[in-house]
Amino acid sequence: YAALNAQANQVAHYLQKQGVKPEVIVGLCVPRSPAMIVGLLGILKAGGAYVPLDPTYPPARLQLVLADAQVSVLVTQPQLLETLPDHPAELVCLDEEWFATVDACPDVDAPSDDVRAAVTPEHLAYVIYTSGSTGRPKGVAMPHRALTNLLCWQQESAIAPASRTLQFTSLSFDVSFQEIFATLTAGGTLVLVSDRDRRDPFVLSNVLCEKAIERLFLPFSALQSLAEVIDSTGVVPSHLREAITAGEPLRISPAIARWFERMPQARLVNHYGPTESHVVTSFLLDASVSAWSSSPPIGTPIANSRVQILDRQLQPVPIGVAGELHIGGICLARGYLDRPDLTAERFIADPFEPDARLYRTGDLARYLPDGTIECLGRIDHQVKIRGFRIEPGEIEAVLGRHDRVRQCAVVVREDTPGDRRLVAYGVADSVVESRSLKLHLQQHLPNYMVPSAIVLLDSLPLTPSGKIDRKSLPAPQIQQDKTAIAPPKNHLECQLIRIWESALNVRPIGIEDNFFDLGGHSLLAVKILTAMDREAGVNLSINQLFEQPTIASISEAIAQQTLPDPAPCIVPLKPGNPEKPLFLIHAIGSSILFYEPLVARLQTDRVIYGIQSVFLKDPNSSVNTVTDLAECYVRQIEAVCPQGSLAIGGASFGGLVAYEVARQLAQRGRAIDALILFDRAVPGSCQPASVTRRYQRHFQKLVKQGPSYLLAKVKHRLTSESSRVRADFAKAQNALLKDLKQPGQKYLGEDIVNRQTQMGDAYIPSHYSGRVSLIRAAETQDDGRVYDEDLGWSKYARGGVRIQTNPGKHMSIFTLPHVETLATHVDAILQVELVRPELVQADRDRSHSAS
Length: 851
Ligand code: AMP
Hints:
851 residues, alpha/beta, seven-stranded mixed sheet, five-stranded mixed sheet, 33 strands, 37% helix, disordered C terminus, binds adenosine monophosphate
């Protein structure tokens, strides 16, 4: 905070020297970075108001805003200078060099101490531009008073005001003010995320976990994408306490309900408010997710704000009757910058309170019997697409400026349920391609305002009264020339085509067709990516789909292995029948090297894979339970082997993971031919030996080993359990490495061993529907504990436990000479389970009654 304050003060002092003071509007065009926050604070500390200029918007759009707001000073960064349009504003290029110069050069006179500015609550804090129905965006001028009120209310009502909050929203939207200032004024932590990462819900869900995000502001559509991702990965952001959604109607989808059911500590809050007032009402959805309405209300007004639901005569409507929602109170913006006509049209005199104003929202709403307000939709043509407020009239005006377009209309369509998108219709004077019309729109509008399809017609349908009949506009057809469809070249491409055809609702699709030309957009991308991952094991990020938007390029990238490996932990150990794989899971030492002597001796014709620890690839992985670890391996197993039956084995710690993997796979309906646990007990299933037995044992050893036994015992007491485990495994592993003549292989780090030891100790198995084949080491561990014959597994394995004993110790069963017997045991298990199902059943029945 001290560093942030000092830098913001320097910027503020400097800006004041450039003439920034109350009512001066300063442009802010800086990419997501700490410099963006410093710039924002600097402008406000200088007493000025900021107008955000999103660097991703086309230059023509930025120019329009710079001119409209009469920006005289622009805070930016050197790398953006080339893309900025021509403008007369004074530039302040905030980068390290700027601060270095300011620090080094006393002439610049930008000290880091606090700044004085003559700002009052009535002065302007920001101007945010929103879409304008007449074809020109309009700047909403917001004074400090409204925003201070919002922050004070937020401080009182927030579940965790000083929380770790994600800065998700672009500065061009008012919610960003709330994210940034509600957090900083409460002493919380603001977590910045790159534009690339925030666009991809898969990455975003990881960010939430890795950065331990506690508070999140999201429009509903982004919340829904995130919920779908969490549904598919099963990884819940466990630190989240408060998710605030705003900007569009909230719908409680099954995925959102499942997500919040798994996070009882978190609350979902629905905020309502247009840019002209920021937040006006709020509704808290409590912990009883099952009782949530599928369309929750927008709640009740926040502090010092008023809502009036009025009919056309500006009379209040009764409870339950729909009227236009009007907003009054401190929260109101001053109006639209330099647009007195427009301001007078929307900000009217309050018929109930002298000298007060009401903002006509254009939203249809009604009071529910419990006093909360329900939003019912728009009265006008304004739409929301993925949280963005859009006036189709503005897009029509830009399209109409193209010299070939004679007439046009822009509408929102939902031809596929849940897929709302903008479609433009045009009648052209002479031949023009829709691609060139799209380019024209891209040059003038932010991306979210560019329709996903442009349909050229001979004429637009009209109503009997001569207006454009928007309801009769035809659904856009993807014109696919069937002879030009590039056919698939391999099995993967066939799979991907099937997935794309079903998600995009376009048929047929060729491998060279571009995702975006087929009508794809970011929400459909999430759907397709989840399906590609689940059904074909192709794990792609949204950004990669943007870079490789055809099936051919995806399949090529996989062939050249430039895409991430969907199964990074799985290593092929022996070729064989791919329909019946055997997966062997690592032990505490994380590597799978010790299985090699066994694998070399197995007669089975199955393909054999080893699963090495996820921590070997990613020591910082957030996985911290056996269940999560198993879930991670299940995903990878499904990627390698999406269908059919399989066998799983695991030694020691790996036995626990193997059990959990088999359990989860069985729960998903996969057939498990065999589950082999190599000398692993259920955690906590043993009992300490009786005192007499323990003394007897000590005495026998003392006689056998002499005083060195006593010394070893003392040392043992002084070392921690985990370091003992580590040492045991290091010994076993080193012996193996020596056997295998592979010196130089490293044993993995102590912290990972400790972590896996703790995960193993904490694991409580749930029931598994199949059978456990347990291979016990004949020389039991000399740890003074008493183990049941079945090592505790009968209680959990519904299909019983088949026990065999192998000569050797816990890990030496995998080395010569004991591994010879071990291989015959494993082959016998695989053989019996595979070839003689009737024996399995008989055996199962016997084991059942025995256990
Ligand atoms: P914006 O100016 O971008 O914040 O958009 C304001 C408009 O979004 C409102 O007039 C509503 O139509 C819609 N809106 C905002 N929040 C909600 C909400 N929680 N539920 C329903 N509609 C909303």
